[in-house]
Amino acid sequence: MMIDALAKASAAVVGIKVTVAEDARSAETLGQRRSGSGVLIGQDGLILTIGYLMLEAEQVEIFTQDNKTLPARAVAYDQATGFGLLRPLLPLRGMSGVTLGNSADLKPGELLMAVTGPQADDDGDVHMTWLISKRAFSGYWEYHIETALFTSPPIVASGGNHSGAPLFNQKGELMGIGSLLVSDVTGENRHLPGNMFVPVDLLRPILAELQQSGTSLKSHRPWLGLISNDQDGRIQIMRVNKDSPAQLAGLQTGDVVLAVDDTKVTTLEEFYKKLWDRSAPDAEIKLTVLHGADIKTIVFKAQDRMLTLKKPSGI
């Protein structure tokens, strides 16, 4: 029974190839050509993947396990959760959508299955992995979710490709979508490498909204354009995105963020939550930063990142 369920789940996985315009903002950091995986979640051809694959997508192709290549269109990109949706322009014959599971029921130590989809020169693969931990995750790119799934051993695929790989429980139910390779999945500095998956539980409340509007309301929030990390109670800016609100305000690599609106912040989670705690995405932001040996206060307007991105046809 378990083997049949996992085989059925694996058969719903496709490969994805995306090309974005050369002048797309995301091309500099994510590349102009991207590849990964997705999984069929609806009989109408709706495919779930990780959002950064679909970010500013201009041309999308999917690869099926019976060696077909089909054109597809982007349906949604959700900055708040990190999910992406797409749909082929031609029917996916002979394929069935998977069941969305409940990752809240997962316990550390459970054996799970991650699947990478085929590509033009790769058949994809099945990877057995263990759930190591479930905890909040803050990404360096102004991203935070309250629960993420961390597994090990890491997915080893052609080119190290883990993007959008679906994660299944032993019933063949979808638990999450692959986002990152991480150096430590324990959260306790044990240096155990593995993967971070975005739990599918975050999709249910917004699925209809994503299909209708191409994103969720929560994605329309203040964005500064910073790449940052936190360590030993310090939030250090690692990179400032070109033409972003942060660059226009004069923030620089190496600056340390001390406070938002005069409230001290020591972790990325605190930083983001304070930043997003306002009604308008283009609200005024007051940052206290350490620049070299000087403490500076900078007041500037944030931006709705969704308005800065090139939208593919369909979104």
From TrEMBL:
The keyword Cell wall biogenesis/degradation does not apply. GO terms for molecular function: peptidase activity. Keywords: Hydrolase, Protease, Serine protease. Signal peptide: none annotated. The keyword Hydrolase applies. One of its GO terms (biological process) is proteolysis. Its EC number is 3.4.21.-. It comes from Polaromonas jejuensis. It is an enzyme of class 3 (hydrolase). This is S1C family serine protease. SUPFAM superfamilies: PDZ domain-like, Trypsin-like serine proteases. Belongs to the peptidase S1C family. Residues 207-265 form the PDZ domain. InterPro entries: PDZ (IPR001478), PDZ_sf (IPR036034), Peptidase_S1_PA (IPR009003), Peptidase_S1_PA_chymotrypsin (IPR043504), Peptidase_S1C (IPR001940). SMART domains: PDZ.
